[in-house]
Specification:
single chain; about 500 residues; mainly alpha; Amino acid/polyamine transporter I; 2 domains; RMV1-like; polyamine transmembrane transporter activity; transmembrane helix; AA/rel_permease1
Length: about 500
């Protein structure tokens, strides 16, 4: 496993150029990509799908916390969580550019072990999350499936849909980006109709209602749902190395546009539905928007909401699969994974091994009965973000003179801690409200990750010693002529 000393010169520039007053930001991608860069609008929609993908699955915030708290949550949470996460990501991703994204800057801050562990946590958090989307897509359109498909075993249908969705990712990142635009627009059109038709029926007093007073609030579920719908801003960092042109200027603008898009597409339908519908909180579960469409617009229109949810699931799956595959590619380039993980398609330049591995693991995980998938994904994500935010602060201390093309406008250490104080508190809370099953799964995954790291390190060390031994033996042969003399040198 590569250490910072054995990395390419572009990587060691951070540590060796201490005499210079200003250090240039390094590049970490060691392979060239044939694909074109993402244009601005496709990038915005890729970020949008990595964060939320629309108002689907936001209904449970009303059921667990009440109407007023749900609205307040979608008003405030982007300010206290999404903006700090996006700003930190924009600074680090534009400074440490490469396919590894968050793995790179954690590696630079704390070394290869923590870089690998963060990558391991984030990857499994992503693929577990990925595994839920093909199933959700099928559940939404199941009443509309042809008889032949509807009689197939459920898991077989999920496996087939996962493979079909994954094949599209092989075409290339720009194609996925442009497809995300169409998917984003089409999946949201039903909510424009719902919001407009709901206007005559809206009672604004319902927006400040707490729902049934006798019903106990489920705060862990509320915050898990809110967090799940508004996080993952750092996922795009794995695409910056080769997918984004001029990241220092493009990323902040793309984050702003994607943030406004997420904010409006989540909040407007929620206000319309709460204002026009019954406030029986038992009804407000994931998928309730189909009932909203049925009662506000009409029976036939509910089908369009199902189709919209299906399209949104495809968009989320495609964007997150792109991040997963490029993350594995980046970890291979850093020496944190075997070089096989960095294999690319000769035609499109896509990391086909990363796509294949992510899809296969996603299919295997989908066979497991995870009743607390959202909590599991959130706790894994929160653990990694605690380390990422710590890496951000430490890199400001460790490399104060490093040129940062985009920089969060806070220079003092106490100011950085103050900015990230609330996000740190949110992460600690999300981590602490997991269930025993969630903690057990995470503990087993972490132990497996640590064993994998040191096993690869020992294996690579033995391979290197074996190579040196063979070279030494070859150099002992006098009849090798010039080659033997060269090896002796």
């Amino acid at each position: 496993m590569k250490s910072p000393q054995s990395s390419p010169k572009s990587k060691t520039a951070l540590l060796d150029n201490e005499k210079e007053e200003v250090q240039e930001p390094p590049m970490f991608s060691t392979t060239k990509n044939k694909c074109q860069k993402l244009a601005f609008i496709p990038l915005v929609f890729l970020i949008y799908f990595q964060i939320s993908g629309g108002p689907y699955n936001t209904e449970s915030t009303v059921g667990s916390g009440g109407p007023f708290n749900a609205i307040l949550g979608f008003l405030l949470f982007p300010i206290i969580w999404s903006i700090p996460e996006a700003l930190v990501t924009a600074e680090l991703a534009s400074t440490f550019r490469g396919n590894g994204g968050f793995v790179i800057w954690t590696h630079q801050a704390f070394g290869p072990f923590w870089g690998f562990l963060i990558g391991f946590w984030k990857f499994f958090s992503a693929v577990i999350n990925l595994s839920s989307y093909p199933g959700l897509c099928i559940d939404y359109i199941d009443p509309m499936l042809p008889t032949l498909l509807s009689h197939l075993p459920h898991y077989l249908l999920i496996s087939l849909s996962t493979l079909l969705l994954s094949v599209f990712n092989f075409i290339g990142l720009p194609t996925v980006g442009y497809a995300a635009i169409s998917l984003g627009i089409l999946s949201y059109l039903p909510f424009i109709v719902i919001s407009v038709c709901a206007i005559p029926q809206i009672d604004p007093s319902k927006w400040v209602s707490s729902g049934q007073i006798s019903r106990k609030r489920n705060w862990p579920s509320f915050f898990n749902s809110l967090f799940w719908n508004l996080n993952c801003w750092d996922n795009v960092s794995t695409l910056v190395g080769e997918g984004v042109k001029n990241p220092p200027k493009t990323l902040p603008k793309a984050f702003l546009a994607a943030g406004l898009l997420t904010y409006l597409t989540s909040l407007i339908p929620l206000l319309a539905a709460i204002g026009a519908m019954s406030l029986d909180l038992d009804d407000w579960n994931d998928g309730f928007y189909t009932v909203v469409a049925y009662k506000i617009v009409g029976k036939r229109f509910a089908k369009w909401v199902r189709v919209g949810a299906f399209l949104s699931g495809i968009g989320v799956y495609q964007s997150q699969l792109s991040s997963c595959s490029h993350q594995l590619l980046g970890m291979a380039e850093l020496g944190l994974l075997p070089g096989l993980f960095g294999a690319r398609s000769k035609l499109s330049g896509t990391p086909w091994v990363g796509i294949l591995i992510s899809a296969v693991i996603s299919i295997l995980v989908s066979y497991m009965n995870f009743k607390h998938v959202t909590s599991l994904v959130n706790v894994l994500f929160s653990l990694s973000m605690l380390v990422e935010f710590s890496a951000f602060i430490w890199l400001r201390v460790k490399l104060p003179d490093l040129q940062r093309p985009f920089k969060l406008p806070v220079t003092r250490l106490r100011g950085l801690i103050a900015v990230l104080f609330i996000p740190f508190g949110i992460l600690v809370y999300i981590t602490c409200v997991g269930t025993k099953v969630v903690y057990l799964v995470i503990a087993l995954l972490t132990v497996f990750g640590i064993i994998s790291y040191f096993s690869m390190k020992i294996f690579q060390a033995k391979m290197w010693l074996g190579f040196n031994h063979v070279v030494a033996k070859l150099a002992d042969y006098e009849d090798l002529g010039y080659y033997g003399q060269f090896m002796k040198k």
